[in-house]
Design a protein that fits this description.
The structure holds two protein chains of two kinds.
Chain A (H helix, E strand, L loop, with lengths): L2 E3 L27 H4 L1
Chain B lengths: L1 E6 L2 E6 L5 E4 L1 H9 L5 H12 L3 H16 L10 H9 L6 E5 L1 E2 L20 E2 L2 H13 L6 E7 L7 H14 L6 E8 L6 H10 E7 L4 H7 L9 H14 L5 E7 L7 H9 L4 E6 L12 H23 L5 E2 L12 H6 L7 E4 L4 E3 L13 E2 L3 E2 L2 H8 L15 H4 L4 H8 L7 H24 L1
Helix pairs in contact in B: 1-2, 5-6, 11-16
The chains are: A little secondary structure, B alpha/beta.
Chain lengths: ~35, ~450
């Protein structure tokens, strides 16, 4: 196996934006409680 | 679009639009990088020559690449741009306030963006009445949002501790009736921390941000009292007591590095030696003419330091002595959705700063600039033109970002930094971009190495 694909949140599927996540103040370090469930 | 890079001993391929992350060996790395520009047979002979892999191996790897592309995990198309218009049409709701309870400070840090806490204005403390109105304003304008955030900020917020306590009590008394939950944070320089403040912060604050620049000589170069005395010896024991009472969780030790300490991992080490392990070190943002401004020569040093920090994080994780560096805490599985990634921090739209007199600004970095005064907590946002301009700040707002792999991590970057660097919130702060991209590469590499090691 030369390619290992890590488990990530698929951004295209994530289109399916509640706004309840924390205000970052990038957004990279934020978490989504819904995705974590 | 993909971004291929090598960090921390890993070959990593990021598929920008899907967010997929692939860790690959040298042969697969070269194959993926050349895949879209090279026909299969040319690629076969090149990879055989450079990596000595068999025909069978090549076919298997090539097939994996084709399959990943078909699954939308490699070379996927970015089809999110139309969503920007839909986002802009949404009714703005406000969910976070930076509450400037004190425009005064007991330290005199030369590099402070807030001009020693006064924001280029007069010293001022927020009254309970103004703060109460700000909380009511937040509830009234938060729509269906349940989680509301308030950061007690300054200046030094503990110089107005009584009002902070009263405001938290007021908020706790009304949140259930409105179906809301307040999440409070406190940003402090530590000088006024005592047992009462520790007890209060650990009971009511979801997060505390503690300002310390690291090594004593580094911290005391800028973080001085009005009399010019360094603060290190005063604040460190107080921070240690607060963090211990907090169970070592839900805080960030937050430092600033400047031209005088681009070797900031040494400051990270000092923080670790002092017993702190939730850390954030930020590059100073200031006019390039300031004596402490980071220079082009510093940039290479800082980037090396980010690499060194990533290795340090991985090594300590293996040793069972992990620590957190804010910018490296990517959650690959539970990170933000695409809407959040497009729209960014929400300054000027869902996140506002409130001054001691109740004026509204797009965020704490704009406070005191009359061009960005948006209204007040009694009349609300009256300069809707400012809000509309901030609505346009997103990952697709700047042509320079169109071919940038990091746009769904930075969302187009910090509007305040862009404004300070270019005079336009839709400008590009190139220096910040370069550092940000290095941090994200390191962050992905840390996550990849950690997951692979597990």
């Amino acid at each position: 196996k030369r390619i290992v694909t890590l488990k990530t949140r698929n951004l295209t599927e994530s289109k399916h934006g509640c706004g309840e996540c924390q205000t970052s103040c990038g957004v990279a370090n934020q978490k989504c409680e819904k995705a974590a469930k | 679009m993909i971004h291929a890079f090598k960090r921390c001993g890993c070959n990593i391929v990021l598929d920008v639009a899907s967010g997929s992350v692939h860790v690959v060996d040298d042969a697969a790395y070269d194959m993926i990088v050349a895949y879209e520009q090279t026909d299969k047979e040319t690629l076969r002979s090149r990879i055989a020559r450079d990596h000595g892999i068999s025909d069978e191996d090549f076919e298997e790897c090539y097939g994996d690449i084709v399959k990943l592309k078909e699954e939308g995990k490699l070379f996927s198309e970015d089809a999110f741009k139309p969503d920007v218009k839909a986002l802009a049409k949404r009714n703005p709701v406000i969910k976070a306030l930076c509450l400037h309870v004190a425009h005064t400070c007991n330290l005199n840090c030369e590099y402070c963006f807030a001009a020693q806490g006064k924001y280029h204005g007069e010293r001022a403390l927020m009254s309970f009445e103004v703060g109460k109105r700000a909380l009511d304003f937040l509830i009234e304008n938060s729509g269906s949002r349940r989680n509301l955030e308030v950061d007690f900020f300054g200046g030094e917020p503990l110089m107005n501790f009584d009002v902070v306590k009263k405001l938290v009590k007021y908020a706790r008394g009304i949140e259930d009736a409105h179906g809301k939950h307040f999440r409070f944070t406190l940003t402090t320089n530590g000088m006024l921390i005592d047992d009462e403040a520790i007890d209060f912060a650990n009971r009511e604050m979801d997060n505390v941000v503690l300002s310390l620049d690291g090594r004593k000589e580094v911290n005391d170069r800028f973080r001085t009292t009005m009399g010019g005395k360094g603060s290190f010896d005063v604040i460190v024991p107080k921070f240690q007591k607060l963090v211990k009472a907090r169970g070592g969780k839900n805080y960030y030790m937050r430092g600033t590095f400047t031209h005088f300490n681009p070797d900031f991992t040494e400051d990270i080490k000092t923080m670790l030696d002092l017993g702190f392990d939730e850390l954030s070190m930020e590059p100073v943002v200031c006019p390039p003419t300031d004596r402490y401004a980071l220079t082009e020569e510093d940039k290479a040093v800082v980037c090396e330091q980010y690499d060194k920090l990533a290795e340090m994080m991985i090594e300590r994780q293996k040793q069972g002595r992990p620590f957190t560096f804010y910018h490296y805490m990517l959650d690959l599985e539970g990170g933000p959705c695409i809407y959040k990634r497009i729209s960014g921090c929400g300054s000027g739209t869902e996140y506002l700063a409130v001054t001691p007199t109740g004026e509204l600004y797009p965020c704490h970095q704009f406070v005191g600039d009359p061009d960005f005064l948006m209204g007040d907590v009694w009349q609300g946002v009256t300069r809707t033109d400012i809000r509309d301009k901030f609505k346009r700040c997103n990952a697709y707002a700047r042509p320079e970002c169109e071919d940038c792999w990091a746009r769904l991590y930075c969302s187009g970057g910090c509007a305040a930094n862009a404004y300070k660097a270019t005079g336009d919130i839709l400008g590009i702060y190139k220096y910040g971009c370069d550092l940000f991209k290095r941090r994200i590469e390191c962050a992905i590499a840390v996550q990849a190495r950690t997951l692979l090691d597990e």
